[in-house]
Amino acid sequence: MLAFSFNDTLLVATVLFSIGLAGVLVRRNMVFMLMSLDIMLNAAALVFVGAGARWHDATGQVMFVLILALAAVETAVGLAIIVCLHARGRPTLDADTGNLLRG
Amino acid sequence: MIGHDIFVPAPLLVVSIGIMVMLAATAWRRSVGRGFLCATGMLLLAITVVGHHTGKVPDGGDSLFVQDRWTACTAILIMFSTLCIMLMSWRDAGVTREDEYPLLLMLGTLGALAMVFSANYMPFFLGLEILGVSIMGLVTFGHRAVPGHEAAMKYLILSGVSSAILLFGIGLAYGVTGSLRFMPPIAAGAVPAALPVAATIMILAGMFFKLSAVPFHMWLPDVMEGAPVPVAAFVAVVSKIAIFSALVRYFGTQNQPPFLDDILCGVIILTIMGGNLMALRQAGFIRLMAYSSIAHMGYLLIAFVCPGRLQSGVVSVYLAAYTVNTLGVFAAMDAFAIPGGPDGRVVAQWKGAFSSRPFLASVMSLMLLSLAGIPPGIGFFAKFGIAAAGVEHQRDLLLCFLIIGSIIGLYYYLNIVRTMMAAPALPSVKLNRQMRPELTVLVIVLSMIVVIGGLFPARAIHPFLPPPVAPSGTGDGATH
Amino acid sequence: MNPLPVLVLLPIMGGGLAWGAGRMWPRASPSMRDASWWVVLATLVVETLVLAMATFSHRAHAGPWPGHFAMPWIPAMGIAVRLDMDGLSLSLIWLSLILCFLCVLLATRQATAHAGAFRFLFLATLTGVIGTFLATDLFVFFFFWELMLVPMAGLIAAWGHEDRQRAAMKFFMFTQGSGLVMLLSILGLVITHYRQTGVLTFDYFTLAHTSLSPTGAMLLMLGFFIAFAVKLPVVPVHVWLPDAHTQAPTAASVLLAGILLKTGGYGMIRFNVMLFPDAAARFAPIAMGLGVAGILYGAWLSSAQDDVKRLIAYSSISHMGFVLLGIFAGSRMGMLGAVMQMLAHGLGTAALFLIAGAIQDRLHTRDMHRIGGLWAAMPRLSSAGLFFAMAALGMPGLGNFTGEFLVLLATWRISPLLATLAATGLVLAAIYALRMVNRIFLAAPQADTRPVTDLPSWQMAVFACVMAFLVLLGLYPQPFMIFSAPLPLPATAMAGPGGTTP
Amino acid sequence: MAEILLPLLVLCPLAASLVVFISAGRMGARAIGTVACAGVGISAVLSIILSVMLLSGPVAGGLQVTLWPWMRVAGLSADIAFTLDRISMVMVLVVTIVGLLIHVYAAGYMRDDPGIARFFGCMTLFVAAMLVLVLASDLLCLFIGWEGVGLCSYLLIGFWYDDPANTSAARKAFYMTRMGDVALLCGLLLLACATGSLRIGSVLASVADGRLPASGVNVAAAFILVGALAKSAQIPFQAWLPDAMAGPTPTSALIHAATMVTAGVYLIARVHDLFAMAAPVMALTAVLGALTLLMGACTALVQSDLKRILAWSTISQLGYMFLALGCGVWQAALFHLMTHAFFKALLFLTAGAVIMRAGHEQDIFRLGGLRRAMPGLTAAFVAGASALAGLPLVTAGFYSKEMILSGVWHVHFGLAREWTLSGHPLWGIALLGAFLTALYIFRCVFIVFCGKAGTRAAGRTSRLMGIPLVCLSVLSLFGGVIEMPDTLPSLHLFSALLDPGTPLSHADEPVWLVLAGALAPLAGLGVAWVLWGRPSPVMREIPGQAGVIRPARTGRGMDVLYDRVFVQPFRLLAWLTRLDIPGHAITGTGRLTRAASAGILGVRAGLLDMLAMRATGTARWAGHLPGLFQNGRVRWYAAWIAGGLCAGLAMAVLS
Amino acid sequence: MHALALLAACVTVVGAIMVITRRVAVHAVLYLVVTLLALATVLVMLGASFAAMLEIIIYAGAIMVLFVFVIMMLNLGQPDSAREKEWLRPRAWLGPGVLATIVCAELLYCTSPLSGAAPVPAAITVHDVGADLFGRYVLVVELVSYLLLAGLVSAFYIGRNRAGGR
């Protein structure tokens, strides 16, 4: 089953990472931003697993677990904030408008 | 294997136990005061046990943690800062009185300590995230809910991006070296040079984000402005110390890889100029402090790119000076706030402070001048050290920008002092100007540290003059 | 007890006491002297005694100069509190103390609000100045150099006149900015020395033996020069001075013109010329050109001013041009002339500022068009003003002339043309000085002049002391010249045609 | 003995000055006058004692006192030292004695002035400074006195400071002399630089040794000459002196006639050895002196203000002295200096008394016929006028002028190798000057004292003012018999006194030379009588505003001649003088400076200040950056992060 | 490369692209689930079956449910979709697209020469991971617990004060 070389993993991860980055940059909806973040984190996780496989080292998957936890935490907190902002008059979830903090 | 022989630096242990205790206390009965008390006690304990650890010191490179004088120095700084911030926010009107607050402060401290002690990417990255997530929570503790949440949101998304970049970089490094040791990746075997380079750059980008070096700095002013004053101080101080400590640990006292030189120089110049120029026209005090803190990170990075005999001492002194001064500014700002009156977050509110609140104005001037590098404040000596390191390495370009930046910085710091000296615009409303006693004590202590540190830098900084990394260099012995 | 650290620390401690006293026993009525004033006076008296001790006692010590003190400060970086005293520093400290007495006796009454804080800052400035004059550790020197800015800027910004804050800001920015350049030079020198010998030290005497490449020496010298040139001030970077002098309260103007400018001259002698003799010699033509430019430009602008204090401020620029000229003339004669000029200018200009301050206290204006004809109302003040105006225009027999003549003579040896141009400045000096005299003192009284009180006799007596001192400097300068000559560096021959004869 | 007396000579007036100044407002007018006169009087007595001591001592050298070293640096030694030799002795006597007389006069003259303390303080200070100038054995020490007298002159000209014209005249005087002072200072610098000392003896010795190149000698002499010209109000610095008459009359008499303005003459006489080696400068001195004497006389002729006439006459007489100096007969110059001090002081004091009694009227055409009202003053004025005109045999002025004329006749300037200049043209000018002198002073005498009565005279001259006039009259008439031309009984007391070694004697002097010198003033007197002395004078109606003389009326033969010969050239000259180019330049300097520096201020505000402002402006502009970059958009921030990463990767990977 | 691997990689990438281009949030979440599932396949092919399981259970299972839950709670409907369309004009894609492409290209440039001799990957079992996780990395696990605690407390506090608005 081990069909992926580290190189291929990197390729996929890089593309995935870039897509996630583009998503963060282009989407104004905060929910989509969070999703794009998840994609980026997944790309990073993929690299770890690929590298772990390359060195035959379980550390990569340990890192994967950590990243998973991080993603969960970020998503949870992020969604909590989104809900909160939504409740306080930011109905559009637009990250660009209604900025109070600037300049 | 699991048990008493695991190597854990004592402060880390104490702080995490403290968190547990606080949780337990909360479960028993919710009480903010008790939370603060518990946290303070645990921090004091942690400070006293700095330098101790459980288990035996691992000799190999596989350890998760490391402990030496450098960690002791930065850990003390971090815990001291948290202590001050605890004191500031104890009865702060600007902070919601919830018992999550001390808990999150402690969690943030734990994260920062983890970063400081880490010898492995894992605790480093986890510490970073613990700190980040705590800050996300902390910034929402202000009474002005929407800015707080907006700040948290911005921080979340941006730190998410930077975390992803950092993780990707770590992944590449891991792929190159097969190890998660906390050091720049060196190509092993057939791996081409480009990959470790890319890994280093991405890790640096992640670190620079936390450090708020210039292209990655934009979150800092917004987050600090959205946060209550003590939290802003926390963001400005604790996370900076932690990340800088890690940065120094990461590269050690050795020269940075040559390919980094141009990038670092560029980042330093951008950071100094960007921070200072952006600070020039700020009306918001916290925002101004945010930009000035960005500029100070630029100065610190100068010392960072000048490794050698002076570096460790210079960096620690500058960090200490920056910490104390920034804390002083924020403490004074906090003390300035009057319930129902000005909260001190806008420079214009300080107009006439020398006549209405001379003590606070004097303290604030001292802190600002020290930040600007004017004697007798400790900041003078710190900046002197930076310049010395720069001259030693003949970083002429950087020194030029150091001077230009300092002059611009002087201008906006002095502008605040000037504002405070101006005649008050309105007859001041009779408000309760009683300062909280703990704040008074804090402000006095910080001022004394600034002055005494400036007058007797050798005595004050002696404990902070360690070799930053394992005692490999021979020249370091002469520094103390 | 070693007098040197006492000299440095005493003022600021006394200032702290004065502040405390001012807070504890605030002044009961405006006419009364309050506790803090007496504290300041006592401080100055004790300081004078200590200084007298330092002047006349000869203790055995390790230093190359008559006075020496050393205490480790930051051993890791080779920094120690090294204080050494030679005649130059001693005489400048004496000058500082005399001027402080003048201010305390004649001028501090002006600060009505927060008098204690005012006096603290005043004495803190004195500490900075004395420290600057004594320090022979470059780091300590820089420390004091920066230190004296803060209280002075505070004095200007808090107790100054209309546009005080901008002036204070300008002053601070200029001096601090140039100070940073000097810092780089200091560090460059130290590190060059470190590279050569492996000894990290900031000791002046040790660093003097650093061998430098011509370019390196020139660069380092320029770094020092820029800082001192701003303080002196030399013409293109004098912009801060008129504002600062004009806006400062009287006591601060006196300190500023009387002493702070002298630190620039002192630094040039002590560091530019003595540390980098060769580079200074190569740079001398430019510096002398700048000096002449300063003489002419300052005098020229001075004669166009309507504001008394501004006029005096520009005249200071002109006088300091002579100092620059003398320092870089490359001979002992020029150096002595510069020192004499500094002493005389310190006294004379300080007195002029005091007089201008007294006028402003009474008439609430500095505009010469609105003052007009004080002789009839205030003959004492006017005669004092006349005397010091004469001193300013270089009347022979008064201190300024001694300095100017020596400087001109030393310059003539180098370049008769420059000397002639500089001498032309004396004509311009006559123009501005007499213009001032004929506008303020010897003129038809203004119709709307309110009745004003003249100086009381005891104040006049104080002025008389200054006059006597100026006359002494003018007619019998020899002891001062021997006394205040900068001592050569040990173990190195002072270059220059003058040799080492005192 | 001399060591004590010599400093005391200076100290007495100085002490008097200090006493008067310090006690200002507490002493009465009489007391002040007494103190001042006592101070100067003691000096006068001392000077006489010292002169006796000097003359009774060895012939060469003088009394030397070195008080203390002034500046001793490598390359320069200057002392505060006094020398009383024969040259300075003459001058000291003149200064103290004439000074004393004038002080006595002033005690009466200024009795009622509220500023009497200031007046006497300055006057005594002036005497002290003048004595320093005279006695100094060191050129730098001399410079103290030189500037000191300038200062006193400034203070006294502007004594009545209520009138801006007075203060501006005072400033004009100071500025112009200051220019000369700077030149003198440059000369001193040059000499000090070359010789390392400014002691007159050693400087002259060094010059004689040839330690100074010829060009150096010339330049130094030229510098000193410029200083002297300015102090003595010679062309081109003549403009300040007439304006200086704004001061009180005793001031004009003492400072601007008898002593200070002659300091230039004295200085050159002091360093005549130096000048002797600088032939071109000598020639220049002589020519300038000749021009000045002619111009002064011409201008005096058309003035209508009594004091201004005297002022121009002073300029003219100083021109004689410079002519003499230029011709190398410095003894003659000093002799004339002395006699001039006597008669000009007399003239001024008398004029002061006249003006005072005539109700402060200075226009000669409004005065007139005063002969009867004040016979004593008339007599004194006539005595002074005769001496000034040099009426032969009976006046001191005749002898001194004669000495100059004979000296000028014999001189030959060796300018360059074959360029020589004979003194004869200069002699001609001097003679013409003598004629004009008599003409203008007797014009004045006739208009003021003869003819119809003008203003009414009031009061009477107090005895305090009278006594000095008598003394001065005697001196003016008989003070000159100590030196006589060879043609007359050859008496050379004065020149022998000054220079015992080489008596000045011209055995081959033609007799007509003396005759010409004697006849010229007489002719002047005659012409004056013809023009103004007759009951219906020809020129009576001419409004005397300087230089604005109406075109001569036709039909009166003498008028045409007068117009052709005198008026037209005078008009030209007077027009030139009235233009007062250097004077205007100087007084204008203040205004000019103001204007120019206002311009510079503008430029400065536009240049240096604006640069500083521009820097902060740039910084402020940069302060707008937050609005541009920190727009609050998360995506924008993230884009920066991505961009930074991008750039970093590019720099690291692609480099 | 195995065909299945290729397919999985393609699905991952295409799914990700669909996620960031959808207008309707629920669609995006579904595509994200697809992406994660495909990624799990990739992980399996890398020999990391444990990671793949976690990916499916925790990520696709738990976290995505959270997303769906929040989307439902916020009640994003038709107007939001229209607004998204407004926001997603081609011009808006220009800058981010270019930036992301450059980053991608640079990273690919760095990694591309790697395609040579690489060590053959081998499977890592749950046992290995578990041993590491609770062996040498036990402290890391503790730290993760604190991370989760921090997230918990933060989210709890933020969410608790949602309705307050004081």
From TrEMBL, chain A:
Q: Does the keyword Coiled coil apply?
A: no
* Keywords, in A-Z order: Cell membrane, Membrane, NAD, Oxidoreductase, Quinone, Translocase, Transmembrane, Transmembrane helix, Transport, Ubiquinone
- Functional description taken from the UniProt entry: NDH-1 shuttles electrons from NADH, via FMN and iron-sulfur (Fe-S) centers, to quinones in the respiratory chain. The immediate electron acceptor for the enzyme in this species is believed to be ubiquinone. Couples the redox reaction to proton translocation (for every two electrons transferred, four hydrogen ions are translocated across the cytoplasmic membrane), and thus conserves the redox energy in a proton gradient.
Q: Which Gene3D superfamilies does the entry link to?
A: 1.10.287.3510
What is this entry's stated membrane topology?
Multi-pass membrane protein
Cross-referenced InterPro entries: NADH_UbQ_OxRdtase_chain4L/K, NUOK/Mnh_C1-like
Report any one BP term from Gene Ontology.
Answer: ATP synthesis coupled electron transport
Report the main location listed first in the record. Answer: membrane
Q: Give its E.C. classification number.
A: 7.1.1.-
Regions crossing the membrane: 6-27, 39-56, 62-85
* Gene responsible for this protein: nuoK1
* Protein name listed in UniProt: NADH-quinone oxidoreductase subunit K
What does the organism's lineage look like at the top? Bacteria, Pseudomonadati, Pseudomonadota, Alphaproteobacteria, Acetobacterales
One GO molecular function term of this record is:
NADH dehydrogenase (quinone) (non-electrogenic) activity
Similarity comment: family membership: Belongs to the complex I subunit 4L family.
Q: How does it assemble?
A: NDH-1 is composed of 14 different subunits. Subunits NuoA, H, J, K, L, M, N constitute the membrane sector of the complex.
Q: Which Pfam families match?
A: Oxidored_q2 (PF00420)
Known catalysed reaction(s)?
A: a quinone + NADH + 5 H(+)(in) = a quinol + NAD(+) + 4 H(+)(out)
Top-level taxon of origin: Bacteria
Q: What class of enzyme is it?
A: translocase
Compartments, record wording: Cell membrane; Membrane
Q: Which GO terms describe its cellular component?
A: NADH dehydrogenase complex; plasma membrane
